[in-house]
């Protein structure tokens, strides 16, 4: 994870984060990780929304 940013909207927070995933994962697998992380944050914290960006890592 990197580039974690938050901003307030009313009494809630909007989160924007880049998730680092293994470059060998399929787009579907990376998307599933992204969605799982998003919903975990929404369930545990008072946030309006979580925007996740998937960044492949590990190649080269």
Automatic annotation (TrEMBL):
UniProt-listed InterPro entries: Cation_efflux_CTD (IPR027470), Cation_efflux_CTD_sf (IPR036837)
Source species, domain of life: Bacteria
Domain Cation efflux protein cytoplasmic: 1-56
Ranges in a coiled coil: none
Pfam families: ZT_dimer
UniProt-recorded name of the protein: Cation transporter dimerization domain-containing protein
Organism: Cupriavidus basilensis
